[in-house]
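Duplicate of #3305? Posting structure anyway:
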């Protein structure tokens, strides 16, 4: 037991030292983004325990009640109720959780799909490279929102289909980044040495290439999350996203727009939450990009 404690102590020390260094190097806006991101993740993770009501529980006698501090406020509904008497706070918490899950799954699928295609394109070259890059150019040329709307209209807007649609968003950016990095690395002396030693294409890809392209992928993954949150919110706002009564931030804004003149809190709460998510992720993504690029450090 003592040996285990001794062995783990340096790990904890390094983690604490790394956290202090990150916090010290961050400016005021970046520190605010870190705090907001951590709070949002904690709230989303514990949403079922924090929410005072079930997100689908209705009380028609309490419909369209304003938040705390306004006339007609109803006890127990801190941020008011919607058109069916559902608690806006509870729905926002559960909506945040589902929105972040969808964004994380979509970004992961895009990373795996685009990263794999970019890796194959960069290593194989030739006609394989031409075909994959042609698909990338075609994807970039067509607005993805139209593709998403068409796909959801044909296959429905279940959560499974929504995850697949979100996963197809942005894969071309991963493919281009990975392909460019692979083409650059393939000309490096250590790759030539691995080839001369008889290393297979798979070994070169996973042992020598992938570890050297992690940084740009992490940055792109972070930035993709905020874009996917906005895409999911847009699709839900248009009525093509996750269907009621399941709550997402975008669907809450879409449903609440009809009550904006009389009950603006139905829209304001999820809209502000979307704003906080995109703010935190974009700021942290830009910061990671600056830290990963040696040419931008110290600016």
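Output from current build:
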């Amino acid at each position: 037991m003592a040996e285990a404690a001794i062995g783990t102590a340096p790990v904890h020390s390094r983690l604490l030292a790394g956290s202090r260094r990150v916090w010290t190097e961050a400016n005021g806006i970046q520190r605010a983004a870190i705090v907001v991101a951590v709070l949002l993740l904690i709230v989303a993770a514990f949403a079922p325990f924090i929410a005072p009501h079930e997100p689908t529980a209705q009380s028609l006698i309490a419909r369209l009640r304003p938040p705390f501090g306004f006339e007609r406020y109803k006890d127990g509904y801190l941020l008011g109720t919607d058109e069916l008497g559902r608690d806006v706070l509870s729905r926002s918490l559960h909506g945040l959780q589902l929105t972040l899950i969808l964004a994380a799954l979509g970004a992961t699928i895009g990373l795996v799909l685009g990263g794999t295609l970019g890796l194959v394109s960069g290593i194989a070259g030739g006609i394989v490279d031409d075909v994959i890059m042609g698909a990338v150019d075609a994807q970039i040329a067509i607005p993805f929102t139209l593709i998403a709307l068409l796909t959801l209209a044909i296959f429905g807007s279940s959560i499974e289909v929504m995850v697949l649609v979100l996963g197809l968003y942005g894969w071309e950016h991963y493919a281009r980044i990975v392909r460019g990095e692979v083409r650059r690395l393939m000309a490096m002396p250590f790759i030539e040495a691995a080839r001369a030693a008889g290393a297979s294409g798979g070994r070169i890809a996973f042992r020598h290439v992938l570890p050297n392209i992690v940084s740009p992928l992490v940055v792109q993954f972070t930035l993709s999350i905020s874009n996917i949150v906005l895409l999911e919110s847009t699709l839900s706002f248009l009525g093509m996203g996750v269907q009621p009564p399941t709550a997402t931030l975008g669907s809450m804004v879409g449903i609440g727009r009809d009550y904006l003149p009389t009950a603006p809190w139905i829209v304001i709460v999820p809209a502000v939450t979307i704003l906080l998510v995109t703010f935190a992720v974009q700021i942290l993504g830009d910061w990671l990009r600056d830290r990963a690029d040696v040419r931008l450090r110290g600016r």
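Confirmed duplicate; merging threads. The CA atoms of residues 6 and 34 lie 31 Å apart. The domain at 95-292 is CATH 1.10.3720.10 (MetI-like fold).
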